[in-house]
# Entry
Amino acid sequence: MRIEDLMRLICMLVLVGVCGGAWADGAGVVAKPAIVSAEEWGSKPEAIPAERKHVPKYITIHHAGVVYKAGTDPAKSVRDLQAYGQKEKHWPDLPYHFLIAPDGRIFAGRPVEYEPETNTTYKTRGHIGVELMGNFEEQRPSREQLESVVKLVAWLATEYKIEMKDVGGHKDRAETQCPGKDFYRYFQDGQLMGWIKGTMEGKAVRVEPGPALAGGPVEEIPRK
# Structure
């Protein structure tokens, strides 16, 4: 092979390598955030039928809808939710794929390859469910929760080739107030999508909670 042909081949391979990590809107490789594994928090899942497997196409963000109280152990909350779902709803595992505590820790839930569960009416196949602990009709999400949901969604969107138009709140899928007005505000004003997109583009994103909404809630969720 002539030297000029070899150099041309090398340039082509480099170009493919650089471009291969990007898939949309200039997004490239996004680091996976730290996640507390199911084994670490003590998961006891039941078998999920093979027909519940799906291909992730959407990301749907929820809140727990339960006021988070000071002194609550988030790992115990995750275990309790799993046990409740198994006993009362006959769900084999957690309804969500990821759960975010007030201190920003991300807990692994149901394996992503299986569709989530819901108490409302919408087709869950294709959705990755992300839950933030707390009730954002009555509490405000912490900065740490906002930072973690941005990092997690940016990574998931890159990992599973999910477009920004397919990231939404639970209320975008069904008749519900979830994920609560003090979180959904960040969808409405465009900040959440901006933070996520900036993270996907490798920018240094500053996640800044907004002021309290008129009419509340006023109190921020306790971190401990």
About this structure: The chain has one domain: 25-200.
